[in-house]
Design goal:
Number of domains: 3
CATH class of the largest domain: Alpha Beta
CATH superfamily of the largest domain: Nitrogenase molybdenum iron protein domain
Mean pLDDT: 95
CATH topology of the largest domain: Rossmann fold
Bound molecules: nicotinamide-adenine-dinucleotide, L-histidinol, zinc ion
CATH architecture of the largest domain: 3-Layer(aba) Sandwich
Low-confidence stretches: none
Helix content: 40-55%
Number of helices: 16
Order of helices and strands: EHHHHEEEHEHEHEHEEHEHHEHEHEHEHH
Amino acid sequence: MKISKLTDSISLQRSVEQANVDHLTTVRQVIEDVQKNGDKALFAYTEKWDGAKLTSLKVTQNEIDEAFESFDGQLIQDLEEAATNIRAFHSKQSRQNIDFPLAKNSYIKYQITALDSVGLYVPGGTAAYPSSVLMNAIPALVAGVERVVIVSPPSKEGKLPASVLVAAKIAGVTEIYKVGGAQAIAALAYGTDSIPAVDKITGPGNSYVALAKREVFGKVAIDMIAGPSEIAVIADETAYADEVASDLLAQAEHDRFACSILITTSESLAEQVALEVEKQLKQLPREEIARASIENFGHIYVAESLEQAIDAVNELAPEHLEIITKNAEAVAEQVKHAGAIFIGRFSSEAVGDYFAGTNHVLPTNSTAKFSSGLCVDDFLKKTSVVYYSEEMWKEQYPKIARLARMEQLEGHARSVESRSWNKGDLN
Ligand SMILES: NC(=O)c1ccc[n+]([C@@H]2O[C@H](COP(=O)([O-])OP(=O)(O)OC[C@H]3O[C@@H](n4cnc5c(N)ncnc54)[C@H](O)[C@@H]3O)[C@@H](O)[C@H]2O)c1
Ligand SMILES: N[C@H](CO)Cc1c[nH]c[nH+]1
Ligand SMILES: [Zn+2]
């Protein structure tokens, strides 16, 4: 792994930027094709990129039940416990209503409603992500969304992994389609004969998925740009090099475009971590992916001070931030921009990826500067409501009419005044 001194300019904007341009061209063609040719295009792309020849996209109840019955009992228990933790944390998230009484028996408020339909993207190109089923579906169901749809790419045999179907059953989702990538996002946005369109698409995926979500935004809502995974670790001389290396590799193994960055105040830790990464890479079954990610987008920076490291992280706004230093909680309080923070050596990112109860669908590519991780609010809408009594209107309408005329909007002024035209109806 490359080691250099921390300067002002470090970035998560991977040189994928160039690759993204190519990916974007593909993504735009795919979306146009799905819009025009519907299911036919879905079948063609599924054969091209997933190697599966399908004649129908929908997973049957039978397939879900069979997967559940033949699945490892211990893993079902573990998934159920993870689901319980995720549900507990997300159930605490507010559907906070603001009831705001005004004078003269009037009021304004928010009316909070769940979205009617959402499409959850569950990645599956190079690995199965049952954990992403739970992370997407539980907040949607806690919010009260009626139609919750999962899309995920099938294997060459035309199947979804049993683990994904089991997690869907545990979460309580039954509408599942075997389609992934940009074509799945296009289908959810525009609808096809097999897949009726949804109102919002959430969930993580590779750069094709993330770009496709960005392209269909406006036709549907999206949660955020949750692309190839990232981690930044701030560590000082108290950290263990082998532990830090294992955390960097845990992200690198997700994707060739994943990004793992260590910022440390200890030169000696920097050197040891670099050696450890090389050693541990060989122990990973996904060595090839992890190595490509580390070689292209992995970096160790030596900072002059903890303050410099924190400033750099706030500039990076990484998807995940681990803090393995003395007084790590105090350091965490100084972080403004990160998708999720993991404090201390016993809270490695994998704890949150699977189990703690926080959400692992998180903003990447520095979008944590303005986006949050997936939560119940992503599946809710707030409609403002206004009720003015006649007395309230009588007192306020001249002010409102004046403001309208200030904007030279005579129609607005007349509209608020018009209630005085029919005097017979007033008290
Ligand atoms: N940010 C987050 O919250 C988060 C969470 C979990 C996973 N992830 C990320 O999800 C991603 C999972 O990636 P994945 O690839 O394993 O699965 P994926 O499901 O995201 O993508 C697989 C699909 O990509 C499409 N594709 C592959 N090669 C293509 C090509 N050459 N042209 C057009 N389309 C192509 C195919 O349709 C395929 O079905 C990783 O990047 C991982 O880091 C992110
Ligand atoms: N680290 C991923 C988010 O970037 C989430 C995940 C799922 N499974 C394992 N990890
Ligand atoms: Zn992970």
